[in-house]
Amino acid sequence: MKSTCRPSSVLLLLLLLLMEVSRVSLQESSKPNFVLIMVDDMGIGDLGCYGNKTLRTPNIDQLAQEGVKLTHHIAAASLCTPSRAAFLTGRYPIRSGISGRVRPGVFLFTAASGGLPSHEVTFAKIAQQQGYETALIGKWHLGLNCEHSDDHCHHPSNHGFNYFFGIPLTHLRDCQPGHGTVFHIEKYLPYRTMAVVLVSAVILHYLGIITIGRGLVVSLLLLLVVVTAVIAGFIMIIPNLNCLLIRNHKVVEQPYTSENLTQRMTHEAVDFLERNSARPFLLFFSFIQVHTAMFASAAFRGTSRHGIYGDAVHEVDWSVGQITQTLQRLKLTENTLVYLTSDQGAHLEEISASGEVHRGWNGIYKAGKSTSWEGGIRVPGILRWPGKLPRGRQIDEPTSNMDLFPTVVRLSGASVPEDRDIDGHDLMDLLQGKAERSKHEFLFHYCNSYLNAVRWHPQNSNSVWKALYFTPNFYPENETACFHTHVCFCSPDYVTYHDPPLLFELTSDPSETTALTPDTEPAFHSILAVMNEAAERHKESVKPVESQFSLWNVMWKPWLQPCCSTLSQLCQCQEDH
Asked: Which of 121, 143, 212, 502 could potentially form a cystine with 515 if both were Cys, beta carbons 3.0 to 4.6 Å apart?
C-alpha cells in the first residue's frame, strides 16, 4: 500500500522548518559581538580620558564618552604572561600554573615548553562552542609547543581562536635592530665568581699550598672562551629564533619587521570584521605596542611630545579608531561590546640602548610594571555597548580584568564553568547601574607564585584597604623603579618583607604615599586580621598544579624551535609582505 503525503502536510513541514531556521537566525543575531582590545604596557595616565593633557587619544576618549569608564580596574598580575592568562580564563594565574619562583615570570623563548595548559577554559573557547567566529590578532605570549617544533599544543587555536595572526612571544628589544638585547651575557656567566676563584687559585699555587698544572689552566681558559663564544653567538641570533610572525599555524615572517606591524594587524582586524559581519564574532585585538622596544610607523613618528613612546600611543589610538569606524560602517556598533584595557601598568625602567627614556605614565599611582603597587596593576577599563550600557558613566568600584571572562561567557549564551574556581565576576549589573557595589570583597595580588598583597573592600563601606606583605627594593636614588634590574623581581634578594604588612586606605590615599600605623588607624590590627584570614582561605583554595615557569618549562629547547627555513639557515623568511 502506497503512502501519500497531502499538500497541507508538506506546507506544514516547510512552515515548521522555516520557523526553526528563523528561530536559530534570530537567536544568533541577538547574540552580541565582542571586540576586546588589550594594549601592552600602557599606563593608565597615558590616555586623555584618564587625565593626560599632552597625548592625543581622541578615539579611545570617545569610547569612554560613549560607554562606561572604570577607575579602579585591576590587572590580575603585573607582568604580561600571567596577566593575559587571568584575563582569558577568569582565574588567578597561580591556579593555571602560570607562575613560578624563577625570574622574571614570563616566557622569554618561543622554543620553551611552558604555556597555558590545554585543560584551562578561555572565554574564546566557550564563545566558539556557542557558534561565534573567533580571532586573536597580535600578541599571545602564552606558549606554543610542547614536544616538537610544530605540535602547537599551546597555540591560540587550542584555546578557542579560529584565526590567529600575530606573534607567539612578545616584542623584545632583540626584535628591534639597534635596541640592544634583554639577554646580557654577564647574567649567564658568573664572571665575578670565576675571577675570585682564578685569583685565589693562583695565589694558593704560588704559596705552594696547591699545585695547578699548566694544562689544567689552559683547558679551563679554553672552556671559558668556548662557553662565552657559544652564549654570545646564541644572543646574536635571538631575533631569528624569537621574533616570528605567524598566520594560523604557519610562520610567515622570521624575524619580523616591526615598523608597520600595527598597521598590518589593524588591516587584519578590519578584514576579520568584514568577513564575519553576518554572524556573531569575538575579536581579541592584542597590541604589540607599547612594549619594548618602541616603534611607530612613519605616519606617526614625531607626532607626540614624548618621543617614540608617545608616537606609539598615538598609533594605538589610530588603530582603535579604525576598528570602531569599521564597526560603524558595517552597522555593528549597536550589537557589539567593545572593551579596552592594558595588561599592566607602564614599564618605568624602559630606557633605550642609547639612553632615551621610553616609559609611559601611571598617573597618580605609585611605581609600575612588575610591582603590586597601584602603578603596576591599576589599568584603564573602558566598555562601550550603545543601548545596553549607559553613556558617560564612571564606576569607582574595584573591578578586575578577570571579570571579562564571566561577562563574555554569559552574554554569549553559555554558563560559567562550575568545575573550577572562577575568580572574576559578571560586570553587567554593575555596568548598567542595577548594582551599586562590586562583587569583589577581596582581591589577591601575586608576584610570580608569591602572594604579594591583599585588597579589601568591606561590605557597607566605601573604604578600600590594601596590605602589602613585601615590596621591591627601589634603587638607587629614584624611588619609582628598579633601574638596576630592568624590571622588579619577586625573589627574596630583591624585596623587603614587612611585618606587619604595609597598610593603605586607597580611597583617601590612592598614591600609597603614607602607610598607616596603629597610631594613625585605630582599627589597624583588626583590619589586618580580617585580610590575613581572607588570604589564608584563598591559599587553601589554590590547588597544586604543574608550574609552567619551572626551569625546564622556560628554557630554550632546539627541538621546539619553529623555523620557516632550516635551523642551519638561521630561520629566515619574508613571506607575508
From this structure: 502
DSSP state of 32: P
In the predicted model, is pLDDT for residue 576 greater than 80?
Answer: no
Could you tell me the pLDDT band of residue 573, with boundaries at 50, 70 and 90? confident
What pLDDT digit, counting tens, does each position of 176-216 carry? 887 777 776 555 555 566 667 767 777 777 777 777 776 77
Residue 184 appears among annotated catalytic residues: no
431: exposed, middle or buried (Cβ count in 10 Å: 0-12, 13-18, 19+):
buried
- Residue 417's φ and ψ, nearest 5 degrees, are -55, 140
Residue found under cell 585591576: 74
* Spatial separation of the C-alpha atoms in residues 546 and 544, rounded to whole Å: 7
Write out the three cell numbers for 146: 610542547
Set 72, 73, 80, 425: catalytic member: 80
Report the alpha-carbon angle 552-162-269, nearest 5.
105
Class of domain 32-171+243-574: alpha beta
pLDDT category at 63 given cuts 50, 70, 90 is very high
| Known catalytic membership, residue 141 | yes
Give residue-wise pLDDT tens across range 421-455.
999 999 999 999 999 999 999 999 999 999 999 99
What are the backbone dihedrals phi and psi of residue 271, each rounded to the nearest 5 degrees, phi first? -60, -40
Cβ atoms within 10 Å of 2's Cβ, excluding its own? 3
Q: Helix, strand, or coil here: 323?
A: helix
Domain ranges for the chain, please list them: 32-171+243-574, 185-234
Contact 282, 183 (CB under 8 A): no
Q: Which of 72, 73, 141, 152 is catalytic?
A: 141
